[in-house]
Sequence to fold (715 residues):
Amino acid sequence: MLQAPVLIVVIPLMFTFVALILGLWKKGLCYPIVLIALSLSFLATLQTLNIVITSGTIHYRLGNWSPPWGIEYVVDYLNAFVLPVISFVAIMVAIYSKKSIEKELPDKVVYFYCIFLLQVTGFLGIVVTGDMFNLYVFLEIASLSGYALISMGEDGAPIASFNYLIFGTIGACFYLLGVGYLYAATGSLNMADLAKLLPNLYGSRVILVGFSFFMVGLALKMALFPLHVWLPDAYTHAPSSVSALLAPLMTKVGAYVLIRVTYTVFKPYFSIEILPATTILSWIAAAAIIFGAAMALAQTDLKRMLTYILVSEVGYLALGIGLGNRNGLTGAILHILNDAFMMLALFMVVGAIIYRYGGRRISQLRYLHKKMPFTMAVFVIVALSVIGIPPTCGFFSKWYLLLGAINAHGWIFVAVLLVSSLLNAILFFRVIENVYLEPHDGDVVENHDIVVSVEEAPLTMLVPILITGAGILSLGVLSGKIISTIIQFAIPAGF
Amino acid sequence: MFDLIVSKYNYWIYIILMMIGFYAMIGKKNLIKKVIGMNIFQTAIILFFVSTASKKGGTLPIIMHGHGEHAVNAASYINPLPHVLMLTAIVVMVSTLGVALAILIVIYRKYHTLEEDEILRFHK
Amino acid sequence: MRVLAFITVIITGLILIYGAQDLPNWGDPNSPASLHVSPRYIEKTMEETATPNMVTSVLADYRGYDTLGETTVIFTAGISCILILRERKRRKKKKS
Fold:
């Protein structure tokens, strides 16, 4: 099945048209079509991973034109690892979104699912391509869908989405400027070709400025510390399914592109020695980790607290990339997988609470452990994972980040990692303590409801939450196997 | 020094245009002015890219007068690749403009103003 | 806030101008962009694609996948506008 790399992107794209036409005829047909499209795409990603493990890097030429004159899909271990993560998160949110969207956006279900499929197409297209300008096109597909989806939410959503639009467009334009500078200096747009041509030009000012613009543009898209200001408002006011889709994926895809640009297009020799980019990146990442955890402590709204935890998690990713050694990069790549699952579970749990009860202030969450036992159990598992307690998966990625920081003699980073674990522990225990107490008036669960039986989230929302929770536990146990089979070879050459 | 300014004057003009657009995007308070600034910024990037395609003495990238009868010299036609990339970038720019204006319509319907300060006051 | 925006703009502009000093001159026929990938597009366009318009042959043949992405962007923008702007029909339709 040699067409697998391109089928990953083309199947959701073609099914968008099918979903639009059939959905306008009969509204109920949308949901099964979305599930079929995403399942086929997930199977294609697994097949691609299989081919990469057995036969090595895939070079797929679109239109059979050899690179750099045509566009090429290069799928190596790093690509093939991130693709199934994106597909799996998309399927989980698609199953989860049925009840939630029917409640929040009852008359726009068809269009919502079309933009949903296009968003997933954009993310998959960004990860699988090997051409710089093709990446820009798919980045814009993903961004435009994101702006539309976020503006569908509640009160502050349109202005938050507009703010995100302005920041996101600045990021994409800076990326395009970087591509332009690199093209004017080398004449090529293909990543592998640039990796061959750039080492002769390392002294040129054009390459230096191009690299800086890449970094700033990708930091804007990834929500790295000083440029994260769009993230809390946008993900708090968005509908529950949209936050559950965008929060795990957008930042991880941005981190993937950062690894590509820093270590594959520009060799590690450039990013670490010639320009101290990785040093600056690791200091900014340390600030992001502490800032995210500290701001999360000050929040009273549960969803907003989770968005600040997301800012902190992006800091972990950037720290792993910036440390510049094998252990740090292993930690960063493993954290892409782990953090996608953790953020997915967290935002799905909050969405379930909002669906059932409508309230989301932390002080209103008392007694929920009796009314939604399974959901809260998964929440406790995810909390343990974010803090970093074995055998959940969060422990292993933090462990590799710690090893990387020790290898690079960055004792400040070791301290930052440990302090942030402590801050996360305080954060989550505050919420869990509230959940396991008796209710007061004005809470989510009223006093007279205590004797009523369990009122869990509906089944289509509960099953993805449980699967993700089980996934977090099993990924922790399987971490060693994942690292030795896939991640070990995913680290770019030169380390 | 003077030679540097004169031989690359296209880059200086487009960079100044980009910075005008960028300032409008982040420094102005009215939302429509931000969108106009976004448009200026993206247009200037497109012009910057296209200006790298020109060649002295080159003509349009279309082969005229007969198909395949004479050999084609690469130095007598300008570079077609940046033009192609910028066709796609123009389409992306117009699409982003469309979505931005749609979001502004929804904001206006809700708050009846388009000044950022007044909208933020609703949310305090 | 305006001062911060102004300083950011000035710094960005200075970095761009600093980087543009090493760019090829305007109209240079020996720039890397004109020597590396594009000669094949210009010279072989009649043999390989039978299209005298080079921009068309690159857009639709050599880099046709980007054109597919571009049409998807337009489609996304169209459906987004419907999604954002559509309002539920009121019970009484106001005639304007």
User: Anything to note?
Assistant: Chain A touches chain B through 24 residues (CB under 8 Å). Chain A has a mean pLDDT of 89. Residues 326-357 of chain A form the longest helix (32 residues).
